[in-house]
UniProtKB/TrEMBL annotation:
Superkingdom of the source species: Bacteria
Species assigned in the record: Herminiimonas aquatilis
SUPFAM superfamilies recorded: Thioredoxin-like
Protein's name in the database: DsbA family protein
InterPro entries: Thioredoxin-like_sf (IPR036249)
Length: 215
């Protein structure tokens, strides 16, 4: 039995959801957590223009109100010629999973999110991603060199594994992010099809677990 969190680090509602997932994971250390990256805008080539920035700021305001997490609006507006491609950051999550399979991948996921939403660094740049992810892994007790992480991140095999994650997200029936699922003996049950506070997540999870405990 395990939880499956399907999301994308550059999805604003996933950023808010990361806080709730951390709280839920603390409530249920007995449940392994698998993270599947969804590739929200994987392979996008269009430059983020002012209209696109304004559209995202509207979403950011809603997420900030719901989650209480900070957003660097000035950092977004100051971006020039930015292509909102989420494949590189999703691939960084996959690379961290390869390098340290027993690490707290949610901590890495959230560190990458913080880099984009708070620090306003270029999370489409592999070198930047390698620094953020390796720093997060070191905080989790895994000694990872930035250059070594970058080599894993840029490998063709890692690119292929990221694409497998994108396909898995679709095969799980997830069409929007974030999503939280419960898998038990190959059976998938939706705990939350979108953003929710930890109290609501816990209520839905307990409802799903109760018949399993009774059987």
């Amino acid at each position: 039995m395990k939880l499956i969190f399907v999301g994308d680090p550059m999805c604003s509602w996933c950023y808010g959801f990361g806080k709730e997932m951390t709280a839920l994971a603390k409530l249920h250390p007995e449940l392994p957590l698998e993270i599947v990256v969804g590739g929200l805008r994987a392979g996008a080539t269009d430059v983020l223009d002012d209209a696109g920035k304004s559209f995202r700021l509207t979403h950011w305001a809603r997420v900030e109100e719901a989650s209480g997490l900070p957003f660097n609006r000035e950092g977004l507006m100051a971006r020039k010629n930015f292509v909102y491609d989420t494949e590189p950051i999703c691939r960084a999550v996959v690379a961290a999973r390869i390098i340290a399979p027993d690490a707290d991948l949610l901590a890495v996921f959230r560190a990458l999110q913080n880099g984009f939403y708070v620090d306003a660094v270029d999370t489409t740049d592999g070198r930047v991603l390698a620094r953020l992810a390796s720093d997060a892994l070191r905080k989790e007790g895994h000694s990872v060199d930035i250059s070594a992480f970058y080599k894993v991140w840029e490998a063709d095999s890692t690119i292929a594994l990221a694409k497998k994650d994108f396909a898995r997200a679709r095969s799980l029936g997830v069409r929007s992010f974030p999503a939280l699922l419960l898998e038990n003996n190959g059976q998938i049950q939706t705990i939350s099809p979108g953003y929710a506070h930890v109290e609501e997540l816990e209520q839905h999870l307990q409802s799903a677990l109760q018949p399993l405990h009774l059987s």
